[in-house]
Amino acid sequence: MDHIDTVIIGAGVVGLAIAARLSQTRSVLVIDQMGQFGEHTSSRNSEVIHAGLYYAEHSLKARLCVRGKGLLYEHCKRFHVPVKQLGKILFARTNAEQDKLAAIEAQAKRNGVHDLTPLSRTQIADMAPGLRTSAALFSPSTGIIDSHQLMLSLVHQLEHAGGTLVCHTRFESAEQTASGFALRLNCDGEAFKLSCNTLINAGGLFAQDNAQRIAGLSKDQIPQSHLCRGQYFCYQGPHPFHHLIYPMPEQHGLGIHATLDMAGQLRFGPDTQFIDKLDYQVDAQAKARFVEAIQSYWPALDPERLHPDYAGIRPKLSREKGQDFVIEGKQHHQVEGLINLFGIESPGLTASLAIAEYVEAQL
Ligand SMILES: Cc1cc2nc3c(=O)[nH]c(=O)nc-3n(C[C@H](O)[C@H](O)[C@H](O)COP(=O)(O)OP(=O)(O)OC[C@H]3O[C@@H](n4cnc5c(N)ncnc54)[C@H](O)[C@@H]3O)c2cc1C
Q1: Could you tell me if the CB of 143 is within 6 A of ligand 1?
Q2: Quick check: CB of 253 below 6 Å from ligand 1?
Q3: Theoretical Cys-Cys bridge with 91: which of 66, 115, 130, 136, CB 3.0 to 4.6 Å?
């Protein structure tokens, strides 16, 4: 049986970031069931580098987002990954929302984000003409990134260090051995066996399913998985925005906000909708809801120019309340050499390089 030090299940941005980092000191193989890296959540998101404003103090989301943001901007410079630090306008429309805005400002400070600045009415009118709002904050460290190029840079880092990415290869199961794991993989329809010392389950939406197939891992160490789809609509036509525009967050998402991609294309979303099975279709019927939400802050929206775009699916751990990332090693589940990553929803892209650091420290 072939042996490799570390096998990582999943070539999304998180698996690749971990692989790029660990390959500097050990032999690493990353496998993905799809034909290419990043075909699930990592290529179906807003591509926003988040500042780290909302998350509960000391949570992994807060710590890894703030740390990851800095690492990501440095990485982009070093590896020439396209990035734009556009900044974001976070706005409130009612008195109740102004209280929320003040609470977010305080939370951001507790998370170590000290660069938020209040915008006057004149500044709002200059920076986002036509935006209907009564108060706003500007977050200068928020940006956008080309996530495909980011993943490509991580693959290059991995391969440069002697590591390997193999696609069309599915993790089937793992048995514990004296020195690690015996893995059963399926490579393009053919069964394949491999042994490793360390196994990292960065399977995103499939992480729980993978964990079920790791012998020795107690079932109560595997959190429930809930799929929460986020749909986007793109806007084809002139618009006044040069920054990202965010209303107040909602229970499961950040509200239907406006982001720009690297080409300057404006898009709105994602919304939030729990679903029972993986389905990336955008429901054209959702347009009326989008129009209503957007016109509440940008009345000049022309509905004719709004078109269904794409959808991503958040790997949520609960339908009721927000949950932190779960990144668990031996200290939690007593399986030597295994790290499971569950619930890596937003800000997982921003946090990816910091997640890699955290995983390395756990090992
Ligand atoms: C709508 C939406 C918007 C978002 N916006 C942002 C944002 O603007 N900024 C931000 O920071 N974050 C954002 N996120 C979160 C971010 O996209 C994710 O946290 C990140 O992409 C997760 O990466 P991952 O590698 O964990 O998962 P994935 O990209 O899903 O990768 C997991 C991989 O594992 C593979 N895999 C699973 N099981 C197996 C198996 N058994 N065998 C082989 N391969 C397997 C899958 O094929 C997949 O490629 C958003 C998420 C969503 C859904």
Answers
A1: no
A2: no
A3: 136
Domain 88-140+226-316 indexed as CATH 3.10.120.10: no
Within a 10 A sphere around the Cβ of 271, how many other Cβ atoms? 23
What CATH code is assigned to 2-46+148-223+321-362?
A: 3.50.50.60
- Cα of 39 vs centre of ligand 1, distance in Å, is 8
Same fold, 2-46+148-223+321-362 and 88-140+226-316: no
**pLDDT tens digits for 239-257?**
999 999 999 988 777 789 9
Residue nearest to atom 26 of ligand 1 (CA): 204
The interaxial angle of helices 60-79 and 348-362, nearest 10 deg, is 100
What pLDDT digit, counting tens, does each position of 41-94 carry?
Answer: 999 999 999 999 999 999 999 999 999 999 999 999 999 999 999 999 999 999
Answer whether 338 contacts ligand 1 (Cβ < 6 A): no
Closest ligand 1 atom to 315 CA: 53
